[in-house]
Write a structure and sequence with these properties.
Layout (H helix, E strand, L loop, with lengths): L6 H24 L2 H28 L3 H14 L2 H4 L22 H35 L2 H25 L5 H4 L1 H11 L2 H25 L3
Amino acid sequence: MKNLFNKRSVKLGIIYLLFMFTSLIIYFASGNFTYRWIAVNLFLSCLPFVFATLAQKAKQQKNKILHIIFIFIWLAFFPNAPYMITDFIHTSYLGFNSYFVVVRDAFAWFGLVYMTLGIMLGILAGVSSLDIVVRPMFKTKGHSMATITVAVVSIMSGYAIYIGRFLRFNSWDLLTNPINLVQTLVQEFELFTVLFSLLFAACIAFIYLIFYILKGRE
């Protein structure tokens, strides 16, 4: 596919690559695994944007089969972006071990700021990919269908974040370990599962709403 990414996407891609590369440098220099997690999770957060763009190009070229394939792949990887919100639980590895003590450690605060930037980049990549998929639907399918799509994707993603954080499965397990995945989902389903999934579903939908309003109509 020619002209797959525009100049703005390429510039953003360079920024993301530099951020991930810097994260790995800090990780090897400090030995703090937090920075490795940031690099890996940010990379996974960028994949939905790539697949959403591929799906968009396939649709423009009227290749329905390829469009559907890329949409399913996008949906499988999309939760990796909002999943990064849960990485805030790793602040203890930066030196923040108590809520009652204000840490006077410049490197710890650098880590917190750096982690926040990484998570923001991941969320931005994810919500941008959601916008690529959903925004055309507001024109072609109507606001009701587009809103329902956002709600369904948000709920599925909220549940996927629970699966990733608590059950430690990832997107690859859909293909490599589906039987064990399904068995575990059934065994581990409880009230907390529902509450956690709905909480993050609401979070994802709210972030997209703000993004949609700020970006405006095209």
